[in-house]
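Lab notes, practical 5.
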Amino acid sequence: MSKKQKKMLVRILISAVMLIGLNLIPVAGLLRMALYLAAYLIIGYDILKKAGKGILNGRVFDENFLMAVATVGAIALAVYEKSGDYNEAIAVMLFYQIGELFQSYAVGKSRKNISALMDIRPDYANIECDGSLEQVDPDEVAVGSIIVVQPGEKVPIDGIITEGTASLNTGALTGESLPREVTVGDEIISGCINMSGVLKIQTTKEFGESTVSKILELVEDSGSRKSKSEDFISKFARVYTPAVCISALLLAVLPPLVSLLLGNPAGWAAWIYRALTFLVISCPCALVISIPLSFFAGIGGASKEGILIKGSNYMETLSQTKIVVFDKTGTLTQGVFEVNGIHHNELEDAKLLEYAALAECASSHPISKSLQRAYGKEIDRNRVTDIEEISGHGLTATVDGVSVAAGNTKLMEQLGIPYADCHCVGTIIHIAIDGTYAGHIVISDIEKPNAKEAIAALKKAGVKQTVMLTGDAKQVAEKVAADLGVDAVHSELLPADKVSEVEKLLADKPLKAKLAFVGDGINDAPVLSRADIGIAMGAMGSDAAIEAADVVLMDDDPMKIAKGIKISRKCLSIVYQNIVFALVIKFACLGLGALGIANMWFAIFADVGVMIIAVLNAIRALRVHKL
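Output from the prediction step:
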């Protein structure tokens, strides 16, 4: 419990003890009034202060104003009637503050998930200087510097391991408890915790551009993106509060005036009491507090599971997802390609592979990397010139003075080179040397172990259609789609073609259904942006993923997609429950208050009781682990 909450708890206890004592100990006259006022000011001075500031700043109609007017009015009415009964005014303020304390505690509880995520922020980086380690601010570390991370320390900046092996705890980033083993040459991202071994890391980014900074920025900004439900509540409160204040004033004035005109006693006190009760009942705390809290708790719960949702508007969209479109490589497959066959004409296997690996040496594409791994020798880039990449086709280059073309059938057709079809399933890289077809290399990607279960989980979660888009050959794409149970597949697509396919799906989908695109966030940025909601898969360390996507999965587990949808639907279900519950109870109680059936004690339940129930319901959005 924070200091502020403890202070409020002390005020509540003092006021409650005084209220009980004043009802047990006989005190009369001015002393009685003074003691009641003291109890009232102890529990309500901050509300009166906020109401006063609101009036001075032009923000008159808020819950502080309503509580101040209602309770001060109740005291004034007791003085006017000389009843000496100040219990209701103090009790209303007391229970209101109990509700505020409870709400503060609930918000604090939901913030713990965000705070846990914020623990990935590193405090320092170790630089080796004259044989000893010096702790410096991560912002001061230049790209290319060597930093040292000891066991138990956070990795402060993204980089590549130059020395050492270790187990990394990536739980704060991915929500997974299993450690990740790393060694020399592995890329490492900031925010992980080194569990064993000393690592030397050559930084590849500045701290401000590193993964940990991007994630923290994303989470901190999530509250600024409001959903339609939150916008509705904001607009509702702006209209509702002035309306109930005017209604309360009319309730206090019109009936007594009508009664006077008809020659009957005015009964001012009774109608003013009804109006004050009406004001207490009308306080929109349950809606104003519980709706943002529900989204905040939902985003916090999702982040703990390694699912970063950029705002409550994306939470709302994700809950309505009925079509999920996948990129294949790195999403449903591991993106780890292996050379499974070399089919040549006159060249030897090794020579064909050498030409292909050298031609592809400047590319970071997984297929290019697989060719270089299969070649197994150090690449001498001085042997390669005139590299030209042709998007969606392949590339051409000059290797040892010989013209080499490496790519798919589209490249061969574009160059007018007859080629041989391959009946093996996989990605086929056709090679031409000096304009003559030399053979092809078969490369296969590996399906993710739980990709099939992920597709089944999406359908179980209510997704009506799954689609796979890929630049791979039709034969490969159809085999993967059939294995995994994907409903439809479109193959041999260029990046622009993927956007076109998504636009067709968007045009044909039902009005309220939303389309999500799941990609690796690097090559799929245009499609991620075009979909109703973009989900970046396996995005640790990818700036493009964090920038382009609306939802970022901090590991490469496709099962998290269904989980994200379930979390968002639970969160939205709670939001709608709170809206309906609060409005139905609120308007029913307002009617009873206007008719004089509900008294001030009833008003306390209508205000504080409804708020506590709504807040309790809201914090259920934190419990998402078992979804």
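Observations recorded by the TA: The chain has four domains: 3-115+224-295+570-622, 125-156+158-204, 307-326+459-554, 338-444. The mean pLDDT is 83.
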